[in-house]
Amino acid sequence: MTHPSLLDRQDIRQHVRHLRRGLSAEQQERAADLLAEHAINFAPVSAAEKIALFLSVDGELNTRPLIAKLWQQKKQVFLPVLHPFSPGHLLFLRYTPETPLAPNKLRIPEPPLDIRQMATLDELDVMMVPLVAFDRDGQRLGMGGGFYDRTLQHWQQHGFLPVGLAHDCQLVEKLPVAEWDVPLPAVLTPSKLWQW
Ligand SMILES: Nc1nc2c(c(=O)[nH]1)N(C=O)[C@@H](CNc1ccc(C(=O)N[C@@H](CCC(=O)O)C(=O)O)cc1)CN2
Ligand SMILES: Nc1ncnc2c1ncn2[C@@H]1O[C@H](COP(=O)(O)OP(=O)(O)OP(=O)(O)O)[C@@H](O)[C@H]1O
């Protein structure tokens, strides 16, 4: 394979972010409802007690309908919080209907950093992962911070299942792979469950 150039990854990011931001409100709403329905019927999610999710920005598939369903089913939901002094790392904090949210420095809402509400990676059963693009081999490209690449290192040892969430239009033929990229074992879109 040719050496993946930075430009390739940046070009794909720009292109797919533009595509997903171009979805209409109706398309977004339908996609989110379909996805929520698929996700709660996916066996690892049905069996899970603690699930990490994310709050959507930038045309990402809206996770709110899924979060509402998981709460109804009395599952515990956790959100990523930027680590206060370890750059590029995430912590996962409990999110309930009562949790106050405040925008972080990337302007994504997050729960307050309260150690009592934190889950370790070992405690999570499923981690729903945001992505900009994925390919037919399960490779994933994110927004560029390397946050989830770090979080997903050694996921097998932690025992949680990473599941990418994406619109169908975020599938690309082949992503350039960097040495630190961690392929996903599953991606859920409104129309399909991909598994590797
Ligand atoms: N919904 C969601 N939450 C997430 C992620 C994500 O991809 N989606 N992340 C996955 O890793 C982490 C945040 N990663 C991010 C990496 C880069 C940018 C970014 O470049 N944002 C702006 C500029 C930031 C600003 O407004 O100052 C941009 O869109 O250009 C945003 C988030 C944790 N939380
Ligand atoms: N496991 C890791 N350890 C150290 N640095 C890493 C690791 N993973 C990624 N990085 C660094 O993070 C930077 C961003 O990586 P990359 O462009 O692959 O992020 P991404 O997958 O798009 O973002 P994200 O995972 O946050 O959604 C890279 O410059 C890389 O050096």
TrEMBL record:
Lineage, opening ranks: Bacteria, Pseudomonadati, Pseudomonadota, Gammaproteobacteria, Enterobacterales
Organism encoding this protein: Pantoea osteomyelitidis
Needed co-factor(s): Mg(2+)
Family classification: Belongs to the 5-formyltetrahydrofolate cyclo-ligase family.
UniProt-recorded name of the protein: 5-formyltetrahydrofolate cyclo-ligase
Catalysed reactions, semicolon-separated: (6S)-5-formyl-5,6,7,8-tetrahydrofolate + ATP = (6R)-5,10-methenyltetrahydrofolate + ADP + phosphate
Gene3D superfamilies for the chain: NagB/RpiA/CoA transferase-like (3.40.50.10420)
One MF annotation (Gene Ontology) recorded for this entry: 5-formyltetrahydrofolate cyclo-ligase activity
Keyword GTP-binding: no
